[in-house]
Design brief:
The chain has six helices and 24 strands. By secondary structure, the protein is an alpha+beta fold. It has three domains: 1-87 and 417-421, no CATH class; 115-125 and 262-342, Elongation Factor Tu (Ef-tu), domain 3; 134-259, RNA polymerase II/Efflux pump adaptor protein, barrel-sandwich hybrid domain (OB fold (Dihydrolipoamide Acetyltransferase, E2P)).
Length: 421
């Protein structure tokens, strides 16, 4: 209550100062030009005062020019509303509205969509990258995948390795296989079980070294120890890294190949933090590349990273695109568009809203030149329109241009009304 009284006092003092300045200015004009105040206009209509159309708060008791060079406009008695007019309400004649450029717009309910445009970087799908190691120590004999960028199929030979440990285990397996053949039918259960257990142990050791079942069966079928064993690609993809060369020593610590399956590609795009509420998993996205003009790729958001870059104020969004022909290559740049569907809402033009930071106000056109301020609540701004959460209904008319001038007149009228009371 105390704050309100202080505010009213300040407005009253401001209005009094403006009135005093107007009186002094009119006295000076009359002293200079000796021009009397007119009381009637065309058609015998009573003139209350003249005012500057660009500064309606400045009133004069004579015709002439305003300090800014504009012709003064008469205010007729019939243009003034009753004393019971609601606080803040403004009444303007058609000529006054034309002078200050008042335009109106109709509040409507419409379906809103928006496109978020950003840039992205193409990277391999990390879930489809294979890292090739060996689990035995030895030396490389032959290399089949011998350059980076080579496309290899799943099960295709990559290289062969000679390993003394591997050769010794193969010999043990063949001995255990012969022992099982001779002793597996022994009438003594412990002897037959021991032979089978030894065979299983040597077979399991080979499998733990990534020796395939086909290779073990081939060894059992031929009965010959292979000096070298071949290692195969675990996936279909492109060789992106290679550290295998003939006669080079290998061990379990060394990564020999990196093979990336590029049939699907990831795109990491940057989205500003204020746009994140409108981005969700599974959302459709389109992508275009300058390398392929006119071609559009369609994908979906697969993951939204949980952190924001403190300098760019953006978060990474991962999108997935199908890449059957391998046109999309890692480290390419792309233009990405995310389609946001806001649904159906009540909207007004953004220029119709006076936003003070703590409140949003519009002027509703009531007809016959009357305009009433109304506080509303707004949501996001989309393509030059505000979503109205409350305060307006479809079909109402609001001021979309000249709002600031009407607001000035409304504030001045409120101050004058408080001063007279």
């Amino acid at each position: 209550m105390f704050r309100k009284l202080i505010t009213i006092s300040i407005l009253v003092l401001l209005a009094a100062a403006l009135a005093y300045a107007g009186v002094k200015y009119r006295a000076n004009v009359r002293a200079m030009f000796g021009q009397p105040a007119a009381t009637t206009g065309a058609g015998g209509r009573k003139i209350l005062y003249w005012y500057d159309a660009m500064n309606p708060q400045n009133h004069y008791d004579h015709a002439g020019k305003a300090p800014d060079g504009m012709d003064l406009v008469p205010k007729y008695a019939e243009d003034v509303g009753p004393a019971t007019m609601a606080p803040g309400m403004v009444m303007l004649s058609g000529k006054e509205q034309q002078l200050i450029g008042v335009r109106t717009a109709t509040v409507e309910r419409t379906h809103l969509t928006r496109t978020i445009r950003t840039s992205g970087l193409l990277v391999p799908d990390e879930t489809k990258i294979a890292h090739v190691h060996v689990k035995v120590e030895g030396w490389v004999d032959k290399v089949y995948a011998d350059f980076v960028g080579q496309l290899v199929k799943k099960g295709q030979p990559l290289f062969t390795v000679y390993s003394p440990d591997l050769v010794a285990t193969e010999q043990e397996y063949l001995i255990a296989l012969k022992g099982e053949n001779y002793l597996g039918k022994s009438p003594y259960r412990d002897i037959s079980a021991g032979a089978a257990s030894l065979l299983d142990a040597t077979r399991d050791r080979l499998k733990l070294w990534d020796i395939s079942d086909e290779q073990v069966e081939h060894l059992a079928k031929t009965g010959k120890v292979e000096r070298t064993l071949t290692f195969y690609s675990p996936v279909t993809g492109f060789v992106t890294d290679r550290k295998v060369f003939p006669q080079a020593a290998v061990n379990s610590d060394k990564e020999l190949y990196t093979v990336a399956d590029l049939s699907d590609i990831w795109v990491e795009a940057d989205v500003y933090e204020y746009e994140l509420p409108y981005v969700h998993l599974g959302q459709t996205a389109t992508m275009q590349l300058s390398y392929y003009p006119g071609r559009t790729y369609t994908g979906r958001i697969q993951y939204i990273y949980p952190t924001v870059d403190p300098q760019t104020r953006t978060a990474k969004v991962r999108l997935e695109f199908s890449n059957p022909n391998f046109d999309l290559k890692p480290q390419m740049f792309a233009d990405v568009e995310l389609n946001v569907d806001y649904g159906t809402h009540v909207v007004v033009p953004a220029e119709a809203v006076l936003n003070s930071g703590t409140r949003q106000t519009v002027f509703v056109a009531l007809g016959d030149g009357h305009f009433m301020p109304r506080e509303i609540q707004v949501g996001p701004q989309v393509d030059g329109k505000y979503v109205v959460l409350s305060g307006l209904e479809p079909g109402e008319t609001v001021v979309s241009s000249g709002t600031f001038l009407i607001d000035s007149e409304s504030r001045l009228g409120s101050a004058m009304s408080q001063m007279t009371h």
